[in-house]
Amino acid sequence: MTEIRLASLQGGAITLESDAIAALRQTLRGNVCLPEEPGYDEARTIWNAMIDRHPGAVVRCRGTADIIRAVRLAREHGLLVAVRGGGHNIAGNAVCDGGLLIDLSLMRSVRVDPFHRTARVDPGATLGDFDREAQAFGLATPLGINSTTGVAGLTLGGGFGWLSRKFGLAVDNLISADVVTAEGELVRANIAEKTDLFWALRGGGANFGVVSSFEFRLHPVGPMVLAGLIVHPFARAKELLAGYRDVVAKAPDELTVWVVLRQAPPLPFLPAEVHGKEIVAFAVCCAGDENEGKRALEPLRALGEPIADVIGMQPFAAWQTAFDPLLAPGAYNYWKSHNFVELNDGLLDTLVSHTTSLPTGECEIFIGQLGGATSRVAVDATAFPHRDAKFVMNVHTRWRDPADEQRSVAWARRLFAETAPHATGGIYVNFMPEDETDRVAGAYGPNYARLAALKAKYDPSNLFRLNQNVRPAAAQRPAA
């Protein structure tokens, strides 16, 4: 009889007889994949090529019952377990070495109720899946900016995008969630049931269970929105960034403007002589009336002399895919991030200085604009605490040649260190790489103690530990 060895929670290995896996297979709508079997490599391969892990077995779930059976197997045998949704998380926690991978990527249903303006979303659905369904009815909810991002991971970390200044974070629009707990039980969490768990899910990451279904509130958006890019030469970067700072301080909630500092990709609307040269790009989305949006954009459009201004009415679903070519799977990626209340002159000087030394042509610094509705929620209303953040910086290094790794990571870390004096000290958990476990407590700030207590209630053995992990409160107490 063949034996299968899987990594355990204790650091060793657990031996399962092959008939245990065969019995599991008989109960699933999905399937079990062992190394070298069909589907195994597809399940373990995720967006960030830096992550190359080999689980001992994969359960490819087709429904909630499959999730329950996989969690119970992991719990019964004390297996190291990872949970994959869209597989887009920078830290790569979606995959483990040697343990059990619970793969949700085949569960991609999105069910829109246009009459009540809600949507039920499976945990493997991507933003693209969501947008295609919701935009058929001219509806949307605040999610990210890349259509291949998974809805589940983005939401559990807080979730922000082009609509957040108008409608809040993804977690501010979460109505309920169906959750498979560490006990292998299915519960529903909302404002009336399991309210403490519902609080924790809204920003507390994947620490508290496997969400098998999300229910979102939807808003009228599109299907056409005013969106696009304004691209400037880099020579006047400091002046442009200072002007941007003044413009967005007065911007209405409907208008969101992000900054991208990078080398110009070969976009068709950019002159060939600009390709590969440093640029300042303003990425714009207006979730409101077209004419009001154009008026709100006038001060931004008055800055400098742009190389290109390609802002116009376009489908919101198309704008959500605009950055996909720059974020396609398969490259090596490493991120560093800070939150800021303001963009002061010292910070702008540092950003400009480091943009002139980008380690590869795919590296970039982006500044996401928040504020608006995201800042009108109390710090303790959800697990996500960073309601003071007006801007989020992501230092995004990206390379294809493994030889570029060391200098790319070193560049990101230098920029991170030099911008730290201007930052709040907080961080968006979805932007944390795998080497930042020391920042988890800071990521949750005043909400961390409550999260640790809820972790002890819902997952006292820390079964769900492959995440930006909040350890159960009891495990943090010193021994007597």
From TrEMBL:
It comes from the Bacteria. Its cofactor is FAD. Keywords: FAD, Flavoprotein, Oxidoreductase. One of its GO terms (molecular function) is FAD binding. It holds the Pfam family BBE. Coiled coil: none annotated. Residues 51-221 form the FAD-binding PCMH-type domain. The keyword NAD does not apply. Belongs to the oxygen-dependent FAD-linked oxidoreductase family. This is FAD-binding oxidoreductase.
